[in-house]
Amino acid sequence: MEEPFKPLSLSIKELFGNADSLYKIPRYQRPYKWEDEQVDKLWDDVYESFENGDENYFLGSIITAKPWDDEKSAYVDVVDGQQRMTTLMIMFCVIRDLYPDINAEKSDENLFAVDIDTIRASIALYGKSNRLKLFTHPQHQSDFEELIIKGDTKELKKPYKYQVRSDEEPKYKFINTSFLFRKKLEDLGQENSEKIIDYLFNQVKIIRIDCKNREFAIRLFQVLNDRGMDLTAADLIKSFLIERLYNRYKNDTDTSKIKEEQFISDWREMEQTIKNSDISLNDLFIIYEYHILGQNPKKSLYDELQNAFADKDPNQIISDIKQFAHTYFKEIYEADDKVLYSFRYIRWNMYWKSILLTALHTGYPDYEKLKKQLRRFYYLYWIAGKTLSQIKQTSFNLIKWVKEKKPISEIEVELNKKITADGIEGLAIRNLSSEQLATEVWIKPLLLLMEYNVTDNSKLSFIKLNNDLHLEHILPVKYEKYPEWNHITKDVSAKWLNSAGNITLLSGAKNIEASNNPFNVKMDVYKGKGKYDEKNDKITAFLITQSILTDYEVNKYQGNWTLEAMIDRWKWFLIESQEILNIDLNEAVEKHQPELV
Fold first, then answer.
1. pLDDT per residue over 296-340, tens digit each?
2. Strand 503-507, strand 469-473: pairing
3. What is the dihedral of CA 36, 37, 39, 40, to 10 degrees?
4. DSSP secondary-structure letter at 145?
5. How many CB atoms lie within 10 A of CB 142?
6. Where are the domains of the chain?
7. pTM for this structure?
8. Quick one: which H or E segment has residue 593?
C-alpha cells in the first residue's frame, strides 16, 4: 500500500539543488506577505545558530503535493511553506548579484563551499529561465521574474512603508526583502557572508513532506496548523473548503477548474472588502460563526465552521460570506448613522455586530427599531457596571430571535424582562447620578451620543474616541489657584467637580488651553470653528460645549459658572440620558444634586 506522505530531511542545498527541486505556488494560496519583522527573524535565527556553532538549525517544514490538474508536471505545489521558500529564493538572487565571485578560490579545496554555480543552480535548472526552481504566486510571477529573478537586485531601492504594507502589490514586499538581505550581507562583507552562506546551504535543515495528492496535503496542513503553527482560523477554513471543492468535482476536471477559479475570485473579493474596513478576516469569520450558530460556540472557530459547512457547497458558502462582508462594509462600517456610531464605542463589539449583521443579511423587517433596542440594552448594562458574562447569552438569543423573525415587540419584552431581573435600571440611574461620574469609562461615549443627538444629519460625522478627545471640567480641578473661582466653596466643589453638572467635551489642543483657568478665559478657548475640522481630522468645538458659551455670551448666570449653572447642566445631562436610554430619571432630576455612590 502506497504511503500517503513521505517526510524528507533536506539541507537548503538539497531542497533547491536536487533533481526533483521544482516548486510552484498554487493560485489558491495567499500572495507573498513577509515584511521586515519576519525576514529579520529568519535571518537572526539562522545567524544566531551559526554564531553559536550549532551543528544544524531546523527551519521548519514545508508540505508539497503533485498538482491535481497536471500529475505529469515536474513541478510540485507548495501547499504550506511558500513564505519561507520565496524569501530564500530572493536571498539567493541577492547573493548572486552582490557576490558573483563568492567562494571562487575555495570551491576546489572545500567541497562544502557554496560558489556562484551552486547559487545559480538553486535559482534555475541548468540556468534555463523557463525551468525556475520556484514559481511564485501566478498573479505576481511576472513582477517576481522582472525584479528578482532576471533583474539586478543591487539596483532596487528601499520602498516606502505604505507600499510594503499594501497587500495589493506584493512586488514591494519582494523589493523590500531583497533590500533587507542586501544590507545584511553588505554589512557582513564578502568574507563573513561566505561563511554564513556556507552554513545556510549545508547545515540549515528543513523537513519536506511530499504528499501523494493535494487533498491529503491540505488535510495534513490543517492538522499541523491546528496544533499551533502560524496560521489563522481563516486560512484553515479556506483550505478545508478547497478540499471539499476538490472532492466534490474530482471526477470532472473542467468543472472543477471553473469552480475553483470562482471560489478564489469570491474569496479575494471578500478579503479585499474586509481589508478596507475596521475588522480582520478572522473577526468576520467569528461574526459569521455567531450568525450561523445562534448560540455560544462549544468548540474552536475552525471546528464549529467545519461542522457547519460539512454538507454544503463550498461555492455557495463563500458566496454567502462574501455578501456578508459586503453588507458589513456598506451598511455598518460606511453607514452615516447616529445609532450605529454609538455602537462603535461599546467593547462587546462582536456581539452587536453579529446581531445587526444577521438582521441585515436575513432582511429583518424592524431593523431600525432593533438598533435602538440594542443600543439601550448594551449601554444600560455598560453604565450599570456589568461585564460580558451578563450580556453574552442574551446576545446569542438575539441572533436566534432575529433569524426567526421574532417581532420587535416581543424582543423588547424579552430584553425588558432581563433588564428588570438584573436590576439594571436602578444601577444605571445610581451611576449616572454619581458625584464621581467623570471617572467612568463610559462617560465620553455617552456625551458623544448626546452630541450626535443635537447634531443635524447633514453635518453628521463619526467622532473618534482617541487621545485628542478630552473630558473637560468646566470648574477646573485646580480652581483654587484663581481668585475668579472664589465663589465656589469646598463643599460645592467636593460634590459637583466630577459630576454630570460640571463636564463637557473638548478636543486635545483646546483642553490644554482651557485646563485650569478662570471661566472667562475658558470661554475664549471654547470659541472654535464649530463642529468638525475635516482638514485636521479632529473636533474643534462640540455643540454640547458651545451651549455653555452661548449662555455666557447672553450673560446667563451673571456671566459666571455657578452652582445654579451646574444644577441646570446636571438636569440637562439627565434629561438627555433619559431620552437616549429610555429610562426614568425624573426623580434624580428633582433631587438637584449628585449622589455619593
1. 998 888 788 889 998 899 999 999 999 999 999 999 999 999 999
2. antiparallel
3. 100
4. I
5. 11
6. 5-225, 233-422, 437-591
7. 0.74
8. none
